[in-house]
């Protein structure tokens, strides 16, 4: 929610024509200091965008990169740190080797970092890119903002436990291009596995927060379900072309869907600003992944009680925008037909969107994103469960039913508005 508030504030300023300091940083950077060349700073600025540093290190209403954003993890709250050049509360006293150890190895000069800072992916950043990134970070003006970063309960607040966690789950391997792949696919792999750290959100985690072998196969976080990015047509990207992926990362919409939640922030802050070559490389990498077969459940019959109730509610509540067939409007309102996100094994994102609504992505390529209103104030848990069960088992989709108790738990977890009528 905090990151949503930040995104809303950014949009408000951009739409009102104001020159927000955060936008200035990303668009132009600042003057190089202590020997960093202008070319290094510019390359580092691009790398900071690719790594989406601004989003996590800026609190709602706060100064860019000054930290203070609460990140809700399964283990408690971790607050992002101040990475401005302030010597007292930021990283102004750090050296480049200290910066490199923090970014690539999760060890700052005085403490171990938690993998909410995705050093497990950033370990793949090359020496040259680390140097350029450091040149840019050093140009960020000092902001005196002391942040209490560790708000985790005992025993997770003991940072030395990360020594054991790193031994078990941290693969320190540097990025190694695959000689059997094209230069384009290798560039995409470098971006996806490293700077863009896609696996941090889209790879299933174990009970200790470490990655499983289900790489890019989706996982839950902060009330959302980061979807399957593997090459299967039912829940993943198997039905998307490379151009579909590029369009989505550039605009936030494509002929299949529109982004929501944390992915919208990633697109607005990061991927829309990447070069065409890098977007094409990311798409080429994802399309190069092996085909994956998933077990497709049998859809619930139309005679099912939830299906019949959901069909009626869908007509009343949803068909005006998504149309009666669920076709939606290309590049604006997502189609619900044969939709991998609808087929996801976990309905968290769907429930979240219905309960709280969602803003459409606002990008250079899609400046007038369409929003979906909240229905949490209007529909009871069983009504929402019926609608989603109907959508997930019609229009070419097949997925487990959604229960009223699922909606109730989500409503409480994300603090969604309660129904105001009876």
From TrEMBL:
Which top EC class is named for this enzyme in its record?
oxidoreductase
Subcellular location, in the record's words? Cell membrane
Q: Where are the transmembrane segments?
A: none
> Which Gene Ontology cellular-component terms appear in the entry?
plasma membrane
* Cofactor binding, per record: Binds 3 heme c groups covalently per subunit.
- Domain (Cytochrome c): residue spans on this chain: 39-141, 183-290, 305-395
Leader peptide range in chain numbering = 1-32
- What cofactors are annotated for this protein? heme c
Name the positions where heme c 1 binds.
53, 56-57
Name the positions where heme c 3 binds. Answer: 318, 321-322
Residues reported in the UniProt entry to bind heme c 2:
198, 201-202
**Record key words, sorted:** Cell membrane, Heme, Iron, Membrane, Metal-binding, Oxidoreductase, Repeat, Signal
Q: What is its EC number?
A: 1.1.99.3
GO MF assignments: electron transfer activity; gluconate 2-dehydrogenase (acceptor) activity; heme binding; iron ion binding
The record's annotation in InterPro entries points to:
Cyt_c-like_dom (IPR009056), Cyt_c-like_dom_sf (IPR036909), Cytochrome_c-type_DH (IPR051459), Membr-bd_ADH_cyt_c (IPR014353)
Q: What is this protein called?
A: Gluconate 2-dehydrogenase cytochrome c subunit
